[in-house]
Amino acid sequence: MVEVLEDVECGLVLERVEAVTDRVPETSLGIRKVDRHPLGLLDDPERASRRLDARLRDRVHVHHRPARDEELVDVTQGVHDALAFDSSQRPGEQGEIEARTRRVHLGRPRDRERHPTGEVVRKRGASIRDPLLVGIDCEDGRGRAGVAVREPPVAAAELEHAEPVDGREPPERADLRSLGVEPPGHARIMTAGRYGALMRGRRAPRGRQKRPSRSERAVRRRPERAVREAERGISITLPSRATPPERVVAHLGPTNSGKTHAALDDLVEHGAGVYAGPLRMLAQEAHRRLGARLGHERVGLITGEERVNERAPILCCTVEMAPQHGELLVLDEIQWADDEERGSAWTRLMLAGEYREIRLLGALDALPLVRRAFPEAELRVFERKLPLEWVRARSLRSLGKGTVVVAFSRRAVLALAGEINRLLPGRVAVLYGAMPLASRREEIDRFLSGAADVCVATDVLGHGVNLPCETLLFAETTKFDGEERRPLRPWELAQIAGRAGRFGLVERGHVGVLAGVDWGEPDPGLVESALEPHVSLPDGHRGYRIVDEARIRPRLSDLGVSDPRDLDAALVAWHRVALREWAFESWLAVESLQPIRMRLEAVQRRLRERGRRISLDDTWTLVNAPVDEDGLELLATLALAITGDRVARPHLAFLLDPARLRGASLEDAEQAGREASILRWFALQYPGVGGVTIERAAALEEAAAERVVARLRLEVESPTIGRCRSCGRSCPPWFPLCDRCAGIAGRS
User: Fold this and answer.
1) What is the pLDDT of residue 387?
2) Fewest CB within 10 A of the end CB: N or C in the chain?
3) Calpha distance 631→640 (Å, rounded)
4) Quick one: DSSP state of residue 489?
5) Residue 146, helix vs strand vs coil
6) Per-residue confidence (pLDDT) for residue 113, from 0 to 100
7) What element of type H or E holds 129?
8) Which residue in 314, 325, 320 sits closest to 274, CA to CA?
């Protein structure tokens, strides 16, 4: 018999398969199927029965019925879409889900006999991040869903019972193909009732398990009820402008093609407007270049951490700080509109910026996005001013003046800088993302002025650092992206390699790989293939990828809340409604809300601990702060400072004291620089609150930058990273000992 549940949505179908002849041993299987059609199961139950019976009339029967309330199922793949699970949920977090129309069933044999099973065989050392349905309330059909780290199940063909049942031989596994059923990719044999496959060594519980009390069920339903109520107040409205721009021009082309220079010329010609870039360093660079041409009194700078001459006719800003109206908007790096955490800032300027003219700057990859957002936009395609020449492998000893070596971790950069400094003492600059901005600027100036012959850098080069060079060499072609170590993508390689070439100084840029570093192992073929675009784009152009979506996230007015305690539920509700609204028909995609919810949870947890509250507007300001996971505790302390809590002031006073950096390590100085950046942002939002002023935060940032530079010089000249602690020889930067000493230590 094949049982088909009437209230299971397509996309998650669990069927109970039982034999009705002696040809197949009787058993009970929980099977996940995404496609109903191999079984002929359609929306019409009668038609499904006829089709299935016609194929398998001598072996199976079809029966339709609702699922029983007490039955549960543990599904390890594909359940995300079926449960409409919130994509911003984090590992270990649980939330209510609506299960009425998604209830699933685990069947029992006809004689109601329970068949306990042992733990199924699993692959060792493997884990996946799974949504997991962990309960169904039999009163109103709601349940709890969570995200857990689980080992993946093995293929259905490998499942076996672990022990006999009631002293008999274990039932054999049913041959699904003999039933005319295509076997799924993965399946698990499970026991009926409130448990799936039992853990090894556990006895099956006797009798029916205790039902949760009414108060327990109410507590479980509370978050989901709050989300459903919040959905009623959600308004999905796109940002829009009252007057369309008179002219939109897209400057698209590769790195070092002159597209930014041409757009800044337009700003100078208009005499008023806004430059908006993705990073503070890019805004500062545009401010310096325009100030040198027009005079610094006519050019202002607005970022999250600083504001200079805000009323100037020309403003250089980070995208999030750009005003929503003006004469001319120069929107740089337009492909960032597809960034899952920051893309909405570009989208809002494109859709709602009240500017008379707009210039869109970026890679050719963003041409599909430009066509969707502005179908009538003019297109100017820029070509590289200098060609790139493939020079294959270069050794450490052959590094000449004007060379940049790229690695993809802080430790790898420091280890390489130490190696190169042996050959070129005092002539090596270092650049990586964790450095304070002033430290980066000092190292860039050393390289551009000729005080350093070689610069060792991370992929920060591909994210806004304009560092033209004659030769660029890759020491690595893999990177850790936060989840796994993977090969670089062609567009990532091309963006970095485009820095090679100094227009007016050399005839062409040189790109290659660095040889002679045992732990680097760059792939020359990967780099060489990335020097030419290979993806077809509209109008016969070629690029490295297709960027055709822009991200959007809610404004506070879209959430319909008045109490900050309802903010998290409103964010989840907006996410659900927006997904339904834009899932298939729009070029807009929903931005990840996980960073906002992460900051919100940190702020509200600290406020609860101290019994404090802040307004909805203050909460929204804090959760949109430029803070990553490392700065959550500081953000929570700043929330307390807004309330006037006495605990926050001494902590902030310690953080703002530059004297604490005396004798600080390189890591501590880098951390102080990140804290100074957050404190500068806070001082601009809440001047003087908690004793935080822009002057004190700027002094801390300057002291941190000086300490980083000093410690960096010491690390490069007397490296501790990339050197064996026992014998002093070179070794991979992520190991403390070389292979030889590690072998000696192992034998001893």
Assistant:
1) 87
2) C
3) 15
4) P
5) strand
6) 33
7) strand 128-136
8) 314
With respect to CATH, is domain 247-381 assigned 3.40.50.300? yes
Say if residues 737 and 724 touch (Cβ distance below 8 Å).
Answer: yes
Output 293 or 28, whichever has higher pLDDT.
Answer: 293
CB-neighbour burial class of residue 14 (10 A; exposed 0-12, middle 13-18, buried 19+)? buried
Q: How confident is the model at residue 175 (pLDDT cuts 50, 70, 90)?
A: very low
- Angstrom distances, CA of residue 546 to CA of 191, 240, 478, 543, 549: 47, 25, 22, 8, 9
Is the CB of residue 542 less than 8 Å from the CB of residue 534? yes
Pairwise CA distance, residues 212 & 142, whole Å: 13
| Closest to 338 measured CA to CA, from 551, 537, 544 | 551
CA distance 235 to 342: 21
Bridge pairing between strands 273-277 and 142-150: unpaired
- Residue 317: per-residue pLDDT: 96
Q: What is the pLDDT of residue 256?
A: 82
Q: Listing from the earlier edge strand, what are the strands of the sheet with 273-277? A: 307-308, 299-302, 314-318, 273-277, 325-331, 354-362, 247-252, 378-381
In Å, how far are 167, 509, 604, 622 from 609, measured between CA atoms? 56, 58, 9, 18
The tokens for 446 are: 């050393």
Q: Which of 116, 108, 119 is nearest to 28 (CA)?
A: 108
From residue 700, give the alpha-carbon distance in Å to each of 240, 279, 597, 651, 710: 41, 21, 29, 14, 15
Amino acid letter for position 651 = H
Q: Where in the chain is the domain with CATH 3.40.50.300?
A: 247-381, 388-521
Assign residue 583 a region (left: φ > 0; alpha: ψ between -120 and 50; beta: otherwise): alpha
- For residues 560 and 449, what is the distance between their CA atoms, to the nearest angstrom? 55
| Residues near 697 by beta carbon (within 8 Å), at least 6 away in sequence | 656, 676, 679, 680, 682, 683
Give the CATH H-level superfamily of domain 388-521. P-loop containing nucleotide triphosphate hydrolases (3.40.50.300)
**Of 706, 728, 732, 710, whose CA–CA distance to 719 is shortest?**
728
Q: Contact, 109 vs 26, CB < 8 A?
A: yes
Task: Give 400-458 as a DSSP string.
Answer: -TTEEEE-SSHHHHHHHHHHHHHHSTT-EEEE-TTS-HHHHHHHHHHHHHTS-SEEEE-
8 A C-beta contact, residue 273 and residue 285: no
Given a cut of 50, whether residue 177 has pLDDT beyond it is: no
Q: Where are the alpha helices (DSSP H) in 519-631?
A: 524-529, 556-559, 567-582, 594-610, 616-623
Q: Which amino acid is present at 3?
A: E
Which residue, among 608, 603, 657, has the nearest Cα to 625 in the 3D structure?
603
